[in-house]
Amino acid sequence: MDILVGSIFAGLLIGMILALVALGLTIIFGVMDIVNFAHGEFLMIGMYTGLLTAQGLGIDPVFTLPVAALVGFLLGIICYFGFIKFLIRGPMVAQLLGTFGLMLFLRNLALLIFGSEDRAVHSGILVGKSFDVGMGIIVPATKLAAAGLSVAAFFGVWLLMNRTKIGMALTATALDAQGARYMGIPTERMNALAWGIGGASVTIAGALLVNFWSVNPFIGLLFTMIAFAIVALGGFGSIPGAFFAGLVVGIITEIPGFWDFFSYTFDADWMMNVPMTSFKYMWVYVAYFVIVVLRPRGLFGWKQ
Amino acid sequence: MEAIKNALDFSDFPRVDLMVAGAVSIALVVFPIFPHSSFAMSTMIQFLMFSLYGMGWNTIGGYGGQVDLGKAQYVGIGAYTTAVMLIRWDIPFWFSMPIGVCLSVGWSFIIGYPLFRLKGHYFAIATIATSLVLKDIFEVWGFVGAARGLEISPIEFPPPDFMRLIFREDIYYFYVILVFFFIGILYINWFRKSRLGFQLRSIKDNEDVARSLGINVHWAKIKTYAIATAFVSMVGSFHACYVRSIEPEDTMSLDISIMIALMAMLGGAGSLWGPIIGAGILIPLKSYLKDWLGAQAGLVGIDLILYAIIIMLISAFEPRGVWGIVEKIRRRKRN
């Protein structure tokens, strides 16, 4: 029973951070109908930013979030004006391969600068501490704080999108770009803003993630795929959808824990022999496939 | 007979195209006679392999407009079928290759049926997902060597051996893949003028209109996907015998899928020469960049950075590829 509850809890915690990872992707897709393959690379840049700022300035990794957000915002805007603006005029094939090129570029640039070894945060007020919640659940303080801050950031972006004039302009651009232009909304700037917000939210997630996840230049693709799965489940372009789908995908990544629980409960030898931890992320891909085939709109989506 | 006549009929191309194509073919055939380094030879074989991959992708991606980013799974199925059959049961290449094609095509039908209910981005990402699932399975499946992969040892299978396709010199591999290459061109030349080829182009232009004209859109896409799969799987089998050591990471990774799509994209998707031009530019560029900048200057990854910049420039400024530029120039001359 402990394993089961513990797995659900761990899944929900990681899911809250994954939801923030996917938020940027869903905003960008909603506003511009473009799928950003470089999303995981933005996350990687956020992770390196958090790590290097913490080490360079000697402050705690938790307080590097503003720096990461700024870097992500600028990165998104630069990418938009320097590249994406030209890309969106072309056909869909070109858009897909173009953002893939961006991904390859950022990944190998990171490889050239930082080298290929894993790096991790070793010190900080949260690192190495944990809470015993009871029922045998031990929660690392880093994960708890990261999940809490990620929910706060998520709520902030939700407020921005739904309670401010800029957010309304973004939503209008997402619904009908041409109509929005007639109403006097500068859609070009709105697109850039979507990339900025998307970049900032994902780099914040990266700076949170680096507290308990070591970083290397190749980490991006995994998170890109996870983010795609979350966005597909929640519905492309839906912000509340991304949050709930993030929790679901978080639980999916804990399937090995459930597998252990059931194999102990039923005392089934064949179940114990399956190397379930190697399949940890496979279920995310399977989930993506099943979701888009059965319900392409996702849970909360309004776009086909 | 009609099919063969159609395949050999290149008369709808301008004469310049045919002259260049003929010159390149002759150059390819006589290339090994002239002195060359082994590095040049392996680059040449890579070029031919990736042209074939690109031709396969071009059927579904170029003529059909369905962005498939999961072709690497079929490279993997082909390569693993050949390697496993050779190592475990000593079945030679020429028998295991058709079996590999059958397995790949079977798998492509299984996943193609649900896949082609999707469109656009959804389809592209779903193909990636299936490819990654298969890669994850191969990485833990002990029967096929798990993450370590398989190795065809030259002691167990002494070269030269035409049936098992094990040779010591690259020149034999070169001629085998060159024959595949010419057959591939003839097949695509037939395909683009076939009923399915025309159906596919009408689907690309407007799917709803194609459906209203009575084309079974779903089935046409699945059939073409199977054709593309067969191409890729065949070359995958060849890859297993050529490199003799395969592992999931270098046969089934996403990078391979993207490379395959990129060949056709860069050269010009939806044209007969596109994938060949694309491979002719990208493969030498990649291997020489890697040699000069990566190995000699000690800058790891800088070859891929330049590569990425090329991808970005092509997709942003000339999405129709090199062939698009050629056609633009021709149109301007005519007016």
Describe this structure in words.
The complex is a heterodimer of chains A (304) and B (335). With 304 residues, chain A is mainly alpha-helical. Chain A has one domain: ABC transporter involved in vitamin B12 uptake, BtuC. Helix content of chain A is 72%, strand content 3%. Chain A is built from 13 helices and two strands. In chain A, a hairpin with a 2-residue loop joins strand 1 and strand 2 (137-140). Chain A is globular and about 65 Å long. In chain A, 51% of the residues are buried. With 335 residues, chain B is mainly alpha-helical. Chain B has a single domain (2-334), classed as Orthogonal Bundle (ABC transporter involved in vitamin B12 uptake, BtuC). In chain B, strands 1-2 form a two-stranded antiparallel ribbon. In chain B, helix 1 crosses helix 7 (170-193) and helix 3 packs parallel to helix 7 (170-193). The A-B interface holds A 35, 83, 86-87, 90-98, 100-105, 107-109, 111-112, 116, 221, 225, 228-229, 232, 275, 278-279, 281-282, 285-286, 288-289, 292-293, 296 and B 61, 65, 67, 69, 114-115, 117-118, 120-122, 124-126, 128-130, 132-133, 136-137, 139-140, 254, 258, 261-262, 265, 269, 299-302, 304-305, 307-312, 314-317, 319.
